[in-house]
Design a protein that fits this description.
Layout: H1 10-61, H2 87-92, E1 106-111, E2 122-127, E3 139-143, E4 148-151, H3 159-162
Antiparallel strand pairs: 1-2, 2-3, 3-4
Length: about 160
Amino acid sequence: MKRSIKGFTLVELMITLAVLAILVTIGYPLYTGILEKGRRVDARGTLAKLAFAQERHYAMFGNYATSVDELNFGPDATEDGTNDTYAYVQAVSDIDYDRDGTPDNYTIALATDGDAATQDFVFTATARSSQLGDTDCRTFTIDQAGVKAALDSSSNDNTDSCW
């Protein structure tokens, strides 16, 4: 009686590896694209929260904050700069994945002329780290009037597809 040997042949193993390589080649770019789009959503939400925090600052103190640090006001409505705050820490929590107080994939900046008469501001979220691979929506902005804009990696306007 002859015993059959069970197992895989080298050809079967090579075919399996080839199919796996094709799946990874197709799947990985799709996966990273989905991650980039998800981070975009987080950045847009963070900018909206920061604009809201600016309006809250204006309602409480009669002026817009001229720096992000000024948005660190706590429940007692004082600009105390501590981490028990509502405004800035809450706003960036969606893009601070490791919870160290610094956004991971975007740099957040506040620009204002500091003039009490004009009362204007612009928040900007600029891609950094692993989000630099996102060439379509590299920079997001929102201003005091709620006007939103987005630029690609070549500084071309891409607002319609990014916001």
